From TrEMBL:
Molecular function GO labels: ferrous iron binding; oxidoreductase activity, acting on single donors with incorporation of molecular oxygen, incorporation of two atoms of oxygen
Name listed for the protein in its UniProt record: Cysteine dioxygenase
Assigned protein family: Belongs to the cysteine dioxygenase family.
Organism: Nonomuraea phyllanthi
A UniProt-annotated Pfam family: CDO_I
Keywords: Dioxygenase, Iron, Metal-binding, Oxidoreductase
Domain of life per record: Bacteria
Amino acid sequence: MNVVVTRPGLDALVSGVSEIVNRRLASGETAHAVADLLRARLPGLDLLTPREREGSPDGYVSTPLHSQDDFSIVSVVWRPGQETPVHDHVAWCTFGIINGIEHETLYRDMGDHLVEIGQVANRPGEVSGFAPPGDIHKVRNSSGEVGVSIHVYGADVGRLGSSVRRVYDLPVRR
């Protein structure tokens, strides 16, 4: 038997992102337009099932909620302290925080090392967007609760398997 998961707010988000993507704006403009949309239509925790909201002790969990050729919507669930490696992306990205705090550290690639160029703590209700190049970062759930965020990528992560273009294993210098 197939179980249908109802995802409140997802259809409206998919429709709105489709309209923006169909305008064929530059990557940065698309990311910012989708950020404005996500700010207005950020779903609640009921977008995910209670089981999906638990996360995993093995690491953060990314779940594609919608994928098509030109964009994807993905939920990311993080238990306290879980983090990504330092990475960048294949396309523009917009994300909104539903629960927890996503602490983001930004880097610049200097060839043989990385330089930290900033940090931001993204809290519930906050939305941001960016486009490559210049999107090298590491993200960590710095809160004491399970974090949940929605990420919209300008690529088909269902086909690609991930939005990550490159993981950086370079020393960080100040």
